[in-house]
Write a structure and sequence with these properties.
The chain is α/β, with parallel strands linked by helices and 260 residues long. The protein has ten helices and five strands, in the order E-H-E-H-E-H-E-H-H-H-E-H-H-H-H. It has a five-stranded parallel beta sheet with strand order 2-3-1-4-5, sandwiched between helices. Helix 6 runs parallel beside helix 10.
């Protein structure tokens, strides 16, 4: 699978994965409209497929860069041992884009997302202290710890052909961020220039693009709840902030979130 036409977009859930994917698909003609979910090869996925099935789908996407997404941890969980060889080969032969976001906003977004299908979730303060259950193969850690280790682990993978992008960069400097990603991938933006996908008008934007450019695709995303920066201030208590800072404060400072 020696193919640097593979683009692997990795993130912790609710970090802006699909915003990046859709920005690439709608602004870089060399990138395929189709994208694949690497997490589907996990036996735990609700719609699992085999690694061979995924490899065949990738092989059929000719002439364009192929997008794959995953929320796997830096330890490659929740994939089991027989799936990891395939995943390792993908990592070694892909352009990797890691997407991160202020962990406090991530946890608020994750909380509301999970409430949409889990009636038994506790209040937010208890939620962030719960053992992470999104990855049963990962060592026991609460949701703050899992976010911290996910981001820290992937940002430390200097052996990969990797670029990083933050959710906040897309918000504040969209065009330059997309151009930086196009430079990393070695492809050009479309001749008409970059079209920003506005989270507040996500579906409307998709419909308009498809009307003007029939070849463009609808949003790949689970729609954002708000998509705003700093919404955590409406949910985190002082004790919650103290807990978060104790666990992830150094990382947050390194990422520049405590300097803003």
């Amino acid at each position: 699978m020696k193919n640097k036409r593979l683009i692997l977009v990795i993130s912790h859930r609710r970090s802006g994965t699909h915003w990046v994917i859709d920005s690439l698909r709608n602004n870089l003609p060399a990138v395929s409209y189709q994208f694949y979910n690497l997490d589907q090869i996990s036996r735990r996925h609700e719609k699992p497929i085999s690694a061979n099935e995924l490899a065949l789908k990738i092989a059929k996407t000719r002439g364009r860069y192929v997008l794959l997404k995953t929320h796997m941890s830096p330890h490659l969980t929740p994939f089991e041992s027989e799936e990891r060889d395939f995943v390792k080969e993908l990592l070694e032969n892909s352009k990797v884009i890691y997407v991160y976001r202020d962990g406090r906003d991530v946890l608020v977004s994750l909380y509301h997302y999970m409430r949409s299908f889990r009636d038994e979730l506790p209040e937010f303060s208890d939620f962030i202290r719960m053992p992470n259950d999104l990855d049963p193969y990962y060592h026991p850690v609460n949701r703050v710890g899992y976010w911290k280790e996910h981001v820290e682990g992937w940002l430390g993978r200097s052996n990969l052909d990797i670029a990083t992008v933050s959710y906040e960069q897309l918000h504040t400097d969209y065009e330059n961020t997309v151009r930086q990603l196009s430079d990393f991938l070695g492809v050009t933006v479309k001749s008409s220039g970059i079209d920003k996908i506005d989270l507040k008008k996500y579906e409307l934007f998709g419909k308009l693009l498809r009307k003007i450019f029939p070849g463009s695709v609808k949003s790949s995303a689970i729609l954002p709840r708000k998509g705003v920066i700093g919404d955590y201030k409406n949910y985190f208590s002082e004790k919650d902030l103290e807990l978060f800072d104790k666990i992830a404060g150094v990382l947050m400072n390194d990422l520049g979130y405590y300097q803003k």
